[in-house]
Amino acid sequence: MTTIEQLDTPSVMIDLDVLDRNLRKTAELASKAGVKLRPHTKTHKSVWIAKEQIRYGACGITVAKLGEAEVMAEGGIEDILIAFPIVGASKLDRLERLMSLARITVSTDNVEVAKGLSDMGVRAGFRVPLYVDINTGLGRCGGEPGAETVELVKRMADLPGVHIRGIMTHAGHAYGKTGRDDILAVARNEAESLVLTSAMLGDAGIPIEEVSVGSTPTSKFIGELGVAGVTEMRPGAYVFGDISQYAIGLIEASDFAMKVKATVVSMPRAGTIIVDAGSKTITTDVNAHRKGYGMVVGHESAIVERLSEEHGNILVPDNAEFRIGDAVYIVPNHCCTVTNLHDRLVGVRDGMVEKWIQVDGRGKVQ
Length: 366
Ligand SMILES: Cc1ncc(COP(=O)(O)O)c(C=O)c1O
Hints:
The chain is α/β, with parallel strands linked by helices and 366 residues long. It has 2 domains: 223 residues, TIM Barrel; 108 residues, Beta Barrel (Lyase, Ornithine Decarboxylase, Chain A, domain 1), CATH 2.40.37.20. It is 32% helix and 23% strand. The protein has 12 helices and 17 strands. The strands form 2 sheets. Strands 1, 10, 11, 12, 13, 14, 15, 16 and 17 form a 9-stranded mixed beta sheet that branches. Strands 2-9-8-7-6-5-4-3 form an 8-stranded parallel beta sheet. Helix 3 links the parallel strand 3 and strand 4. Helix 3 runs parallel beside helix 4 and helix 4 crosses helix 5. The two termini are 38 Å apart. The protein binds pyridoxal-5'-phosphate. The site of pyridoxal-5'-phosphate (PLP) has 11 residues, from loops.
């Protein structure tokens, strides 16, 4: 058995006890609130973790890409939302094949995209289930809630090869807020806008089965919103935790499942150490609320100031605390993009390496 001390660097470690607790707590939150959990698996891209989420009660999963959906379906996941518009003949062909392997739903905010899906459905002899994507403040995909979406959905509902199954939104702008009240306000707006739109669609003769909300920040408030009508939530990053969640006061340091083990390889100047984890290990994702590229465990005033591809420059108050060869543990700013850089993650428990977690969907960007 390998101990964490013996683990070579850089390594992306996942504390299996913390992972387990994060999975359980979020599943309980959803269940108590009476909504389904359909976690976004872009965070871990691992069939094993997706199955753990389902074991804890998730109704299925969300992915961003067709390639990720293929990997998950081949791994045995039966119910998959592809929360991304599918455009172009080659992807539509792949989607048609995939739909014989698993229950697939696709999202879009555009009639032309829905028409492509509908034509495929008609050819194949089925209706493609759709979630219509709505903007509740992020300003990415999606028309506005209410009348604008109702008009859009009416046009989609006329297409013969699609079935309007639900509406969804992603309130990723919650990461720009700090503190409970501001995040709660985003969560409330997200839920209320969708529930209102769902009611308007019902009045227009288009019944909506699924009302799908929930980034990691907003999903934490699902229980206290008291908004009837939301049917599912799709948090992703909650599984590992990261600085983007910590810096806005959403999680505690004890909730970090992901830590990157690195080694001090140079101490060139007073106040600087260099570690063997650069942008190819922890990414250059920044955080709006906290300086640097991650947090060094046990040295919170250290700043991961600069990254080359393989070097990490860390400003430390006192070099004397470090020696060449020392291990440092860095909590990354954004766990999802870190996962995508690695073939496998190291599952650890009680100081020992217990399990290698394959990043099955790594690089499946098409
Ligand atoms: C459509 C959609 N749903 C859910 C999520 C999960 O949100 P989070 O990253 O806050 O866990 C994302 C994240 O990008 C997303 O794009």
